[in-house]
Specification:
Helix content: 10-25%
Number of strands: 8
Number of domains: 1
CATH architecture: 2-Layer Sandwich
Distance between the termini: 43 Å
CATH topology: Nucleotidyltransferase, domain 5
């Protein structure tokens, strides 16, 4: 165990311990990190999606992510930059009648 891990395991997480999240944008072809945003643990992935896309220099042709990005605002932001989205729907996703389609398939989004 490292420094502080024993105390955490025995006594639980202290009030002052906070986690940070590093959200990365990676070029799938080269594996190069092209954008990054650091947040506290109370910020969800979809909240920084726009910041990640805005941090990329040049054209974006495709955006991929996990189900955390299956939100209307993420699809709209990707559409604004002209990128195709490949985001799997969440388990409880339902088709949204007013949303666009990608290659003839409906985009699934969370109930609001």
């Amino acid at each position: 165990m490292g420094v502080g891990e024993w105390k955490t395991r025995i006594h639980g997480v202290g009030k002052r311990r906070t986690w940070r999240k590093l959200h990365l944008g990676v070029n799938a072809a080269t594996g190069e990190i092209v954008t990054a945003v650091a947040t506290t643990n109370d910020v969800s992935d979809d909240q920084v999606f726009g910041d990640l896309l805005d941090g990329v220099e040049g054209d974006i042709t495709q955006v991929s992510g996990d189900g955390a990005y299956d939100k209307c605002k993420c699809y709209e932001k990707a559409s604004q930059v002209g990128a195709k989205t490949t985001i799997p729907p969440r388990k409880d996703a339902v088709p949204q009648g007013n949303m666009a389609t990608v290659e003839g398939l409906p985009i699934l989004g969370m109930k609001t």
